[in-house]
Protein: MBL fold metallo-hydrolase
Amino acid sequence: MKVQQIYTGCLAHAAYYLESRGEAAIFDPLREVKPYIDRAEHDGAKIKYVFETHFHADFVSGHLNLKEKTGATIVFGPTAKPGYDALIAEDGQIFTVGDYKVKAIHTPGHTMESTTYLLIDENGKEHGIITGDTLFIGDVGRPDLAQHVVSELTEEKLAGHLFDSLRNKIMPLDDKLIVYPNHGAGSACGKKMSSETTDTLGHQKKTNYALRADMTKEEFIKELLEGLTAPPGYFPQNVLMNIKGYESIDTIMERGTNPLSPEAFEAAANETSALVLDTRDAETFSKGFIPNSVNIGLEGSFAQWVGEMIPDVKQEILLVCEPGKEEEAIIRLSRVGYDKTLGYLENGFESWKKAGKEIDRIQRMNADEFALAYNDSRPLVIDVRKKSEFDSEHVIGAVNIPLNVINQHLAEFPKDNEFVLHCAGGYRSMIAASILKQRGWENFVDVAGGFADIKTKNVEVSRFIEPKTML
Structure:
């Protein structure tokens, strides 16, 4: 069966492409749809359907852009109520794509409209299931997102629905079926996802904690809800965009690919409420940047950290990028609903320097310098990794303030005493450092290389599960 997984690592997202006899279908596409269209044209196929497993929270789907550009029919599962024209499938409804069939199986739980699509080949043999966020490899979808949009859908109610969907709709299917999930490890849509992006259903029945045959519904609900962290703030906003609709990607690109001279860039920053977002790598940023800009590097989990650190998807943004990276940055912002890029600094930061504009810097030290300072004077060390990372191992005496909650805990960063900032490798701590600089902190040093380098030096590291924390 000709089904292709199209995986985007920075979002831990999987879309799927199905083609048979000149007809194609796309499942859960990203916002920029040209790669899907190009693939279909290469195969001499017309995109007939865009299947959506649910209203996504962690990204803005490209379903509307595909419909606009190809005339494809958008398909949602039962109970979905989109604010635009779409086909709402019945439970068990079958769609044809060339010689293949796609069967909609309503599997509520992650959300109420969540639907799994069973793929059937040209010989009538069941091949695989595209499960969306109902079933991952090693995990299942979190049931606490829909309540941020519809308050009466409590996480307990949704978890109960998910238990029933898995037991009554998914687990009775053939063990040989290939499971094609919407996400892999690194996504905030689950908590125990594997780095593998496909598996057989039979193997998942043996290894996935949520598919234990002897599990009661009460046990399932308890285990599923245990250890869930708060979802990123942009999730509900993305859900509403996917339900109500959004601007065309072409409009977003036209508005954002607006080169600005240093003078025009400075004027735009002063005359609007735009955030200056610098997407260069942490080391380059630290050596010189536009005052009050925030650093989130393109080389890391850019879209996810933008979503974590910028509360409002309608925030206007001015970009500073390495020359040639501007379009990539605009596309990756749009994937998570940040559509208000107003332009970018033409020729990058070097043009700002050559214009003689004001520059700020962030002091960094390497792990050897950290070890000397730590063993000599025991400075305050603030670790911005996740609590689970900190609990696993950390510098003795360090304080844990995870990056994703830094804005709620700024008062815990001293302004009168010096401190040292670090994360795992230097990416997240530079985000934190840029935010602190923007808010007026000057008395800190960031560790290049982060904890990965620190623990190789002569520094006391605790591996107890009793962290010192300020949260």
The two ends are 51 Å apart (CA to CA). The first strand starts at residue 3 and ends at 8.
